[in-house]
Amino acid sequence: MSTDEQAIRQMIALWHSATARGDVETVLGLMDENAVFLVTGQPPMRGRTGFGQGLRGLLKTHRIESTSEIQEAEVSGNLAYVWNHLVVKVVALAGNSTVTRSGNALSILHKQPDGQWRLVRDANMLAPSS
C-alpha cells in the first residue's frame, strides 16, 4: 500500500471519528472549500459552508455513528478516488430514535500543496436499512 493510500485511509478514519465526536471543524478541514456532495433525490450540496451548517444543525439534536469499508482506492498523481461501503446511524439525543442508512459512496480527493488529501466530490448512494 502506498504512502498516499495510507494517508487517504487515515483521512477517512479521522472523518468518522471527528463526526462521532461532533468535531465539525475537523471534518470541514478534510474537504475542499468548493466540495460538492451528490445525494440521491436532492440537489447537489455545494461548498464547505453549506455542509458545515447542515452538520451543525443535525448535531444539535442527534449524534452520528458511521463506519466504512473501503472497497477500492486508487491514486493517480494529485487525484484519487475511493469507493466505500458506508453505514451511518443518526441517533436522536432525546428518545430512542435511530435512523440507519447504508450503501456505497464514491469520493474524489485532491492532494493539496501541503501534502494533505481533501475531499472535492462525493457521490453518496445511501438508502434506509435496518
TrEMBL record:
Alphabetical list of Gene3D superfamilies matching this protein: 3.10.450.50
Superkingdom of origin organism: Bacteria
Protein species of origin: Piscinibacter terrae
Name of the protein in question: SgcJ/EcaC family oxidoreductase
Domain DUF4440 residues, every copy: 8-119
Cited Pfam families: DUF4440
